[in-house]
Design a protein that fits this description.
The complex is a heterotrimer of chains A (365), B (336) and C (73). Chain A is an alpha/beta fold. In chain A, 39% of the residues lie in helices and 18% in strands. Chain A has 16 helices and 11 strands. In chain A, α1 runs parallel beside α11 and α7 packs across α12. Chain A is globular, with a radius of gyration of 21 Å. Chain B is globular, with a radius of gyration of 19 Å. In chain B, the strands form 3 sheets. Chain B has a 7-stranded mixed β-sheet. Chain B has a 5-stranded mixed β-sheet with strand order 1-2-7-5-6, covered by helices on one side. Chain B has 336 residues and is an alpha+beta fold. In chain C, a hairpin with a 2-residue loop joins β1 and β2. Classes of the chains: A alpha/beta (365), B alpha+beta (336), C alpha+beta (73). Chains in contact: A-B, A-C, B-C. Chains A and B meet through α1, α2, α5 and α11 of A and α1, β14 and β15 of B. β9 of chain B pairs antiparallel with β3 of chain C. Chain A: Keywords: Iron, Metal-binding. Chain A: InterPro entries: Hyd_form_HypD (IPR002780), HypD_1 (IPR042243), HypD_2_sf (IPR042244). Chain A: It holds the Pfam family HypD.
Chain lengths: 365, 336, 73
């Protein structure tokens, strides 16, 4: 799909940089909501291409990071049951819960399998009729429909031993909660392109309408991101609040209605607890009554340890964009990717992990 | 952690592996040859300067595009000797075999070891075979150790990295890791993707014969190019800056990385060498490498900088600069 | 939060499709994109096609950017 030459890319990048520098006459703070954007920004070294007036802060868009300890503790408790196979994306494996992690449980014999697709869980369930296969259904609107479709496929296949442990979350309600709290001044938002591919443009309409914040739906190539920063800086300079869609190639205004229909069949909106943000009304997804037999929490007994948060860990503030990773006393000392204390350090997409791995403040040109 | 246990990530070749060796093995065995932590140890015996190394092979699947566990077991040890600046001479081979393993597969593995040994000019002069109960190992594990003669007039050590040196790589990265994981995660690879597994002793010997001034030689295996560069930067106390655009990655390998969320800079290679040399010699090194089948795509990918000590930087495709850290944990397929 | 790659549909049977990226192929489900056709580019996430990639739109965005940059010179 790449048809631009290197020269063209460099010319465009230079153009965006020049325009951003020209238009950003006073300090602006832009939040990239999405963890994949956070990583793309660091990986491409985009922060250094921006003038000091433009500050990028990371938002609550890393699904692993915003999943509260209690969820991990529940997954760990299930994994200790002898007849349970946990299936999970690789992202969740090393996340520390209150006293353990799935990687640690795996090392002591728990049957935990990394899958690329939730559908892989169904093959595992079919091959292990004597076991209960529990898929850790974590993610935002991009991923939730894949879990919903897997539940439907399990029903169709007549599988009685497949379950989801659901902690899906929704992006727009979290943005509303952040802006309502007003704890962090955000002048513009970079919106998650792949969430938007499912939900479309409309759910973000309130950002400009009610909060006067310009926002851009954008993709993940370095030029997409630079282009989106340029569009935001331009809107801010003109004093306009509007929603722009830089990622039309995969984000039609209405999103993906077929995926939304599948999602709606299996899941309904529910209040959800976010690490750092607390309980946000209608910001999560719960398995609907008709599919309760696939809901691990409703269908299977489990005893979960008392949830503890690490004292001193400032993941919550980092997730709200209030603190930068370097503000946390544990960052880079007690908390590193090898020995993470908080989820922001363990997830590849976590803000702390990205800061650490890509050397924010560590690498001098 | 009071009852810390070994995790799979301790074997990934990245930070956790280093920590484990530094905390558990190195203190127990400390000596000057070991403490250099090179791919092969340099020792003296009976007046001869020797390089000595060992490695165990536990690859799954046993047979993959471009090679198998046998070829890997010979090439890996041959390459560790070659990048120690030695001519590989003798290998040992230890087999740990699971009860029930097909003898036909064993023959195939051994035949491919022999072919690789012939190409590399080494002889397997001693060995050992153990059979363990079903389930105690996964099919077959192989350990090889090797001895080589240090090539006179050369001085290869990670400590020789100096600011201003060029860093040369002999071809595209990530092929081995991608070929080995082909069957996993439902991916089907085109025939164009195969492990780069190859004995590099011939190419490296030719380079050292032409340019004995080569300062550092390493093969970026587990942990990938990024981890190896970090090891050198840390040991020599220098900075390293590499250029993303100069590091070749096949489109098929990049595609697998994009799908599974991997970074090719951390993928294992089994037929790659990186060479540090003062820049006036770079052209000659590259000419010699390109004349060799395993070095056709040799090129400069970066250079050594005075600062920041112990760190590796990457100039990105779009012109930014960022830290290129060591691998932490295993690369796992991820969706976010 | 969501890695996804564009891939080309090279074959489809019912709600399963074979998609291709640089010669690498994989089976993906079309449950979330039932109208996708062979030859189209789709966005792949966690084993599912989740959206079609509009090549015309991609070209338009690019041209728009190109124009902006050209205008500058």
């Amino acid at each position: 799909m790449k048809s631009r030459s290197r020269e063209e890319e460099h010319r465009l990048a230079a153009y965006f940089r020049g325009e951003i520098a020209r238009l950003a006459t006073k300090p602006v703070r832009l939040m990239e909501v999405c963890g994949t954007h956070t990583v793309a920004i660091f990986k491409a070294g985009i922060r250094q291409l921006l003038p000091p007036e433009v500050e990028l802060v990371s938002g609550p868009g890393c699904p692993v990071c915003v999943t509260p300890n209690g969820y991990l503790d529940t997954a760990v408790a299930f994994s200790r049951q002898a007849d349970v196979i946990i299936t999970t994306f690789g992202d969740m494996l090393r996340v520390p819960g209150s006293s353990s992690s799935l990687a640690a449980e795996q090392a002591t014999g728990a049957d935990i399998r990394i899958v690329y697709s939730p559908l892989d869980s169904l093959e595992i369930a079919a091959a292990n009729p004597g076991k209960k296969v529990i898929f850790l259904a974590v993610g935002f609107e991009t991923t939730a429909p894949t879990a919903a479709a897997t539940v439907l496929a399990a029903e169709q296949a007549g599988l009685a031993n497949f379950y989801v442990l659901s902690a899906h979350k929704l992006v727009p309600p979290a943005l509303r909660a952040l802006l309502t709290a007003g704890e962090v001044q955000v002048d513009g938002l970079l919106l998650p392109g792949h969430v938007s591919a499912i939900i479309g443009e409309e759910p973000y309409g309130f950002l400009a309408r009610e909060y006067g914040v310009p926002a851009v739906i954008t993709g993940f190539e370095p030029l997409d991101i630079l282009g989106a920063v340029y569009l935001l800086v331009k809107r801010i300079a003109a004093g306009e609040a509007a929603l722009d869609n830089e990622y039309r190639r995969v984000v039609p205004p209405a999103g993906n209605p077929a995926a939304l229909a599948v999602l709606d069949k299996v899941y309904g909106e529910a209040d959800a607890a976010w690490r750092g943000l607390g309980v946000i009304p209608a910001s999560g997804l719960a398995v609907k009554a008709a599919y309760r037999r696939f809901d691990a929490l409703a269908a299977l007994p489990v005893t979960v340890e008392e949830t503890k948060e690490h004292p001193g860990c400032r993941c919550g503030e980092v997730l709200r964009g209030v603190a930068r990773p370097a503000d946390c006393p544990l960052f880079g000392t007690a908390c590193t990717p090898e020995k993470p204390v908080g989820s922001c350090m363990v997830s590849v997409e976590g803000t702390c992990a990205a800061w650490y791995k890509y050397g924010a403040g560590r690498w001098q040109v | 952690m009071k009852d810390e246990r070994i995790l799979l990530a301790h074997g990934s070749g990245g930070k956790l592996s280093h920590d484990l060796v530094a905390r558990v093995m190195q203190p127990a065995f400390a000596n000057p040859a070991l403490d250099l932590m090179h791919d092969g140890a340099r020792v003296e015996a009976a007046g001869a300067k020797l390089a000595f190394t060992t490695d165990s092979y536990v690859v799954k699947p046993l047979f993959f595009a471009g090679g198998d566990i046998g070829k890997l077991a010979v090439c890996g040890t041959v390459n560790d000797l070659a990048v120690s600046g030695a001519t590989p001479l003798y290998l040992s081979a230890g087999f740990i075999i699971e009860e029930g393993f097909p003898v036909a597969d064993l023959r195939r593995i051994v035949a491919s070891m022999r072919a690789a040994a012939e190409e590399a000019g080494v002889s397997v002069v001693t060995g050992d075979t153990k059979v363990v109960e079903k389930g105690a190992v996964d099919g077959i594990y192989i350990n090889t150790a090797g001895i080589g003669a240090v090539i006179a007039g050369t001085d290869i050590s990670p400590l020789n990295a100096r600011p201003g040196q060029d860093i040369i790589l002999n071809g595209p990265i990530g092929d081995h890791a991608v070929a080995v994981m082909a069957g996993r995660h439902g991916l089907s690879l085109p025939a164009s993707v195969a492990s780069d597994c190859a004995p590099l002793a011939g190419m490296i010997k030719a380079v050292l014969a032409a340019v004995p001034q080569v300062a550092v030689l390493r093969d970026p295996t587990r942990g990938g190019l990024a981890t190896t560069l970090n090891e050198i930067a840390a040991q020599a106390g220098v900075g390293i800056m590499v250029d993303e655009a100069a590091i070749p990655v096949r489109p098929e390998v990049q595609a697998v990385c994009d799908i599974l969320g991997f970074d090719p800079l951390y993928l294992a290679n089994e037929g790659k060498a990186i060479i540090f040399v003062e820049s006036p010699y770079s052209e000659e090194v590259i000419t010699v490498m390109r004349a060799h089948p395993y070095g056709r795509e040799a090129r400069v990918i970066g250079r050594v900088t005075p600062a920041p000590a112990g760190q590796v930087g990457l100039r990105t495709g779009i012109g930014g600069v960022r830290l290129l850290d060591m691998l932490v944990g295993d690369q796992l397929p991820r969706i976010c | 939060m969501c890695l996804a790659v564009p891939a080309k549909i090279v074959d489809r049977k019912d709600l399963m499709a074979t998609v291709e990226v640089s010669g690498v192929t994989r089976q993906v489900s079309l449950m979330l994109l039932p109208d996708a056709k062979v030859g189209e580019f789709v966005l792949i996430h966690a084993g599912f096609a989740i959206q079609t990639v509009d090549e015309e739109e991609a070209k338009r965005t690019m041209e728009l950017f190109e124009e902006m940059a050209a205008h500058e010179e």
